[in-house]
Amino acid sequence: IREGNRIVWLFRPKYSAAARRTPKTVSRDEGIVIEGDESDTAEVAGFVTNMPGQSKANENKQFTGKRIDLDFKNADIHDILRLLSDVGGVNVITADNVGGSVTIKMRGVPWDQALDVILQAKGLGMMRRGNLLRVAPLGTLEKEREAAIARIKQREQLAPLETRLIPVSYATATTLQGKIKELLSSRGTVSVDVRTNTLIVRDIIDSLDDAEALVRTLDTQTPQVLVESRIVEATSQYVRDVGIQWGGDISMGTSTGNPTGLAFPYNMGIAGGATDGQAPTAGLSPLGGVSPNYAVNLPAAVGTGAGGSLGLSMGSVGGNVNLNVRLSAAEASGAIRIVSSPRILTLDNHPASITQGTSIPFSQVSAQGVQTAFQQAALTLNVTPHVTADGAVAMDVNVSRNEPDFTRVSARGDPTILNRQAQTNLLVDDGHTAVIGGIFTRSTGRNVAQVPFFGDIPILGILFQKRSMRDERGELLIFLTPRIVNRAESLGT
């Protein structure tokens, strides 16, 4: 193209993608053309009659004409038809063999219903074209209708055949082949080119146009659905442990300067039972370098980084009376929130699955010995979506979360598997979120360890008790959100 002093070169591909996907006529036969009345099809479609025995069909007819009153006795049918023609504003033509008299009395009846009843009573039918009604005996109209059908079939048999290539973009051509075959005439054929996913249709032009229109209607993008699942786990834990240790010793003898003065017992000592040196001593300063002798040894679970303790030691000058007391307490609380969000994209009515996890080894004992097997601990989402005509999404969903629990193990040390699963069918609007399930658990416990009898004494019994309390709560919620990715292309909205 020359533009002033410039020459612009335009390069176009010889074969474009759009051209390959457009229906194309590749051959046409000459055929035999028959000149005739082009209104044969209209005659077949416009043939309206009240055949005897069609009372059920007549009950479903809708009459909307002006309501009139009729009262005639032995009136000529031509006069009645002319009257109804004037009332309804239509033109009526009667055949030569239409005749007879009519006796009728009606009140407040639509004029078209009156005409329908009169024609049925006289064995007549009518054919309507626009504002023109042609009235003739049923036999005459039936013969004309059959003749028109015969002429149409004859033209179809002698009409030229064309071969048209109809490409299929989104559907499978083999699935549309059977539907196209139902639209073809007796001379038509349809085959499929699997490589290009193209329908090869050979028939008369009218049938080819119908087949092409059907393919354009059915060959649309399949909706794609993005399904997002959010699994929210929240756990809270509260633990309190309070314990006490106390004891001491009393000794009477020459070493302490306070013998009993008796021959027996000359020396005497009373001490707590924990004399093996294994009792906890944190927070105490034992007198005389002797480990505390605890009469009550119920400590709390106190370790490094957890809880605290308070110790008290008292003793006499001579060391003959010693008292050791140790209070220990621990309290822990915490909250954990875990959010898992698996997502999967799939086509309408196609199942999809996504899994993330690990394999946990565990031991199996058999006749061959101990073998190692594996158990899946994974987060899995299985879903089959279906997009409805109004744009909602129906889903068959199975969501599961399995994880190892190392706090509960078998005799061989293998962890147990915690299973959480929800399976359901639901209907959700595009882009909306639904809660498909929830699990709430609460575990509480209270434990009291005490010295028999002494622990039951009111108030003073606290000195002989260890108390622990536990409160654990867990909550699991599963959310689902479907989104149609190609809504405009697949649904036309």
Strand content: over 45%
Oligomeric status: single chain
Query: Given the C-alpha coordinates, what overall shape results?
Result: elongated
Ends: how far apart? Answer: 42 Å
Radius of gyration based on Cα positions? 49 Å
Number of strands: 24
**Main β-sheet description:** 8 strands, antiparallel
Which structural class should the secondary elements be placed in?
Answer: alpha+beta
Arithmetic mean pLDDT: 79
- Count up the helices: 9
Helix-strand blueprint:
Elements: E1 2-3, E2 6-7, H1 17-20, E3 24-28, H2 40-45, E4 47-49, H3 55-59, E5 67-76, H4 77-88, E6 91-94, E7 101-110, H5 111-121, E8 124-129, E9 132-137, H6 138-158, E10 162-167, H7 173-181, E11 189-193, E12 198-203, H8 205-218, E13 224-252, E14 268-271, E15 294-298, E16 308-315, E17 321-340, E18 343-347, E19 352-366, E20 369-387, E21 392-409, E22 415-429, E23 434-450, E24 465-484, H9 487-491
Parallel strand pairs: 6-9
Antiparallel strand pairs: 1-2, 3-10, 4-8, 5-7, 8-9, 10-12, 11-12, 13-14, 13-15, 13-17, 13-18, 13-24, 16-17, 19-20, 20-21, 21-22, 23-24
